[in-house]
Amino acid sequence: MFNGTDKRYNQYSAYLKNKFGVKVYKITLDAGFSCPNRDGTISTGGCIFCDEGGSFSQAHSNLLSIEEQIDAGIKTLSARFKAQKFMSYFQAYSNTYKPVKELEKIYNSSLCRDEIVGLSIGTRPDCVDDEKLDLIAGYKDDYYTWIEYGLQSIHDKTLRRINRGHDFDCFLKAYEKTKERGINVCVHVIFGLWETRDEIMQTAQKLAELKVDGVKIHMLCALENTKLADMYFRGEIDFMSEEEYVQTVCDFLEYLPKTTTIHRLAGNGLKKNLIAPTWLGAKMDCLNKIDRELMKRNSFQGIKFL
Predict the structure, then answer these.
(1) What is the pLDDT of residue 63?
(2) How far apart are CA 169 and CA 302, in angstroms?
(3) For the chain, what is the radius of gyration of the CA atoms?
(4) Residues 249-291: pLDDT tens digits?
(5) Nearest Cα to Cα of residue 101 among 150, 56, 134
(6) What is the pLDDT of residue 269?
(7) How far apart are the C-alpha atoms of 107 and 264, rounded to whole Å?
(8) What pLDDT score was predicted for residue 5?
(9) pTM over 0.85
(10) Quick check: 4 and 18 in contact, CB under 8 A?
(11) Is 32 helix (H, G, I), strand (E, B) or coil?
(12) Rounded CA gap, 213 and 179, in Å?
């Protein structure tokens, strides 16, 4: 139904393959960034779900240079998957949280191989300004360029509860400035943040209204050495069941326009660090259940988009 596949949603990997003619693989990079929500600029301790890796899920270390991480990624992915094209993906922490001159050197160093066709930068909406966005926009003529913003929810009460350190209005301002420059935007959201189904669907409807280019859906989970894990062990919180998550994902997809690419539907953090919910460790099982539920409903992404 999308990109010549049997998927009932606009799967990002299939979209890239259709765009570039071959499958495109992300090389996840750690450039040693920090975060204003962890270093005391905004608050201390960061978001309650964030672990010491800053959402970095790969084995590379910032002890390696960016060029070395790129070379290692290309070597590994080429040997394992016969990969031919790649995107540089700055994943760990807030990857615009440095002066613009330093950012330029870092981003340039990730584009050191001819096989690199894209650039994706994960960050927070309170860590961009006009100068930084102008820098990133300068890459889009030669590389498929994205900014990934961690939003998590449109509801300020939820953002306060997870100690996010910014509100929804901050995201909207950053989003508008980013889109003015023609940069693709992927928005991260989290399910299971003690919101009602209606509140989660309000986030879906707002993202649909904005016609965001991409969405990553995460399930709230407790990883080792996080505030959320401490809350879980004290019996203060519980998590969505897999069935509830599958139903909510399908509901959410139905509101998004067909043009929005879906970058992730399941899987959070390293499996070895996962404390709860344990069902998240079986990512493919969850993805298959989402496929089956959409088929059962005879539904697809965008069916409720107006």
Answers:
(1) 77
(2) 25
(3) 19
(4) 999 999 999 999 999 998 766 678 899 999 998 999 999 999 9
(5) 134
(6) 64
(7) 24
(8) 95
(9) yes
(10) yes
(11) coil
(12) 10
Structure tokens at 57: 């899920």
The structural domains of the chain, ordered by start, are 12-297 (3.20.20.70)
- Three-state helix/strand/coil letters over 121-135: EEECHHHCCHHHHHH
The per-residue pLDDT for 266 is 87
Kindly report the backbone phi and psi dihedral angles of residue 120, in degrees, each rounded to the nearest multiple of 5, phi listed first.
-130, 130
| φ, ψ for residue 104, nearest 5 deg | -60, -45
Whether 248 contacts 200, CB under 8 Å: yes
Give the span between the Cα atoms of 200 and 227, in whole angstroms: 23
Both structure tokens of 38: 């962890």
Upper half-sphere CA count for residue 287 (Cβ side, 13 Å): 15
pLDDT for 59 equals 46
Strands 144-152 and 116-123, sheet pairing: parallel
CA distance 270 to 264: 15
Per-residue model confidence (pLDDT) at position 16: 98
- Which two structure tokens, joined as six digits, stand for 176? 């508008």
Q: Go through the chain and tell me how many residues it has.
A: 306
Residue segments in the chain with a per-residue pLDDT below the cut of 70: 44, 52-62, 268-270
